[in-house]
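Severity: low
Component: inverse-folding endpoint
Summary: output formatting inconsistent between runs
Steps to reproduce: submit the following structure tokens with default settings.
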């Protein structure tokens, strides 16, 4: 911006924001000025510059799972394409969802917000959804996805460190914890239930990771109203 970016919306989209307004709001909250002011002033002097969040590889102790059966879930949320190279954008997706959509979703249940994703394809691409549970589907906002997940057995793992280290926990789960459990993961959605104390602005507070398990009776997952997503 200080170098004179010609299009602020392009900057916003490049850094994971869904709109000029969401980017400006987050930028102003962080720096106390708007992107336009920085661009027009051609300087970052006086701004409290912070280092970007980095997802660095590391090793986590394999968490000890508990087995839980989860009943039918109806969720409404903000879905976006993602990949191994762009997971750093997920915190911004959560900020946008909570700031712009979360409170306005009708029939919200009391359960904490939920992250939902399928296993990546061979290119490392997947769809990630920031969502809340609803007791029933209401009117559908154009930008939101409705998803229904049938009852299923899960292995539940805790992640208590900063959210930037979550992929170390996932690595420990897939490479060590699940093989030790002698169970096979199902081809279904992985769920991330945020703890009540989780703060999307700081990444602290912890969450639980729910890995779907194969059973003799395979549960169905149905996409409602928005073909082409989460198939």
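Observed output (run 2 of 3):
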């Amino acid at each position: 911006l200080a170098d004179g970016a010609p299009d602020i919306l392009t900057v916003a989209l490049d850094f994971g924001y869904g709109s000029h307004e969401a980017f400006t709001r987050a930028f102003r909250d962080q720096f106390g000025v708007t992107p336009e002011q920085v661009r027009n002033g051609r300087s970052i002097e006086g701004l409290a510059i912070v280092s970007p969040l980095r997802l660095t590889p590391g090793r986590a102790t394999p968490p000890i799972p508990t087995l839980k059966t989860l009943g039918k879930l109806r969720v409404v949320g903000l879905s976006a394409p993602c990949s191994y190279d762009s997971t750093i954008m997920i915190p911004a997706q959560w900020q946008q969802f909570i700031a712009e959509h979360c409170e306005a979703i009708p029939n919200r249940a009391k359960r904490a917000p939920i992250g939902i994703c399928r296993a990546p394809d061979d290119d490392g691409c997947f769809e990630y959804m920031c969502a809340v549970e609803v007791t029933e589907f209401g009117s559908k906002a154009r930008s939101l996805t409705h998803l229904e997940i049938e009852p299923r057995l899960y292995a539940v793992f805790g992640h208590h460190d900063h959210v930037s280290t979550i992929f170390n926990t996932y690595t420990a789960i897939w490479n060590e914890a699940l093989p030790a459990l002698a169970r096979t993961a199902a081809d279904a959605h992985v769920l991330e239930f945020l703890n009540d104390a989780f703060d999307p602005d700081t990444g602290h507070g912890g969450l639980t990771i729910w890995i779907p398990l194969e059973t003799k009776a395979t549960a169905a997952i149905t996409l409602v109203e928005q073909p082409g997503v989460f198939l």
